[in-house]
Amino acid sequence: MRDRSSQLAALPKAFEIGVAPTTRDAQWLRPFEGMGTYLTEKSRLLACDFDLVFADIGGTDDGQRQVLELVSEHLLKQFPETYLAAGDDIVVTVDEAQFNVPIKTAEAPLITASKLLADDLVIMRKSNDGWQLACGCVCFPSAWNVRQKIGKIMSDVHAPVPDFAQGSRKATIIERMFDALQIGATVERYNWSLHSVDDLHLPEPEDGDFLDMDDLARLFFRGEVQTLTKLPSGSDILFTIGVYVDPLDVLRRNSELIGDLNMQLMALKEEQLDYKGLRGVRDRLHGHLNSMG
Question: What InterPro entries is this protein classified in (predicted)?
Fold first, then answer.
């Protein structure tokens, strides 16, 4: 199972860029109990809402093939109890079910790679204007969709996020971080948000807002495990997004994590509260978290 306790322990400071180097071993893009729900939902979305979850600027075939090769080799090597090569298919056995993923198909290689795991996959490409979102299979976004972002450079992708607009210090740091990433190297970071629904597929704020704060006990903590890996071409970066959703009540298991989240909550500026949908409710949420500790 995905080790959620270690992920929550790595809870980042809100709106900080911080990344940490990691290795592509059994901790990277790993299967977990319950992953079958993710794979089933991906298949449904790709069949019913393809244009909402996949986008490509064109000319990314080589990068997509590199991603498929990297991801499939990693999964087959690290998790032989879950992934088995069978002819032209990879068989994924999880939650007492089997998912057959044809490797040699006419579909985009990034889609094939995405069908193997819970994480969403994005290719970032260096352009004359900066790193741009060149191709993505994003089935489980947190209040956005890949069609909105395709072709945009990083500063435009992050434009709604406070302090990340083009020309800002943080936008410059991100650009330099992408430039400095070495071929084959992988770094990771974490992100979090609160929602009133536990949907994996969350392309827009529900009901026009992020939260229904009438019942704090029914909030859900949405975490993201993000990684960046420079592909062999040197011009592309694989960006992965692994989403997990738990009732906020799960934090009761660790008072230290409640304290960390509460500290971050109280440090948010007004524009950051707006972005996370928490303006006007911070004090009440702060009190609720204290009562959980």
Answer: HODM_asu-like (IPR021848)
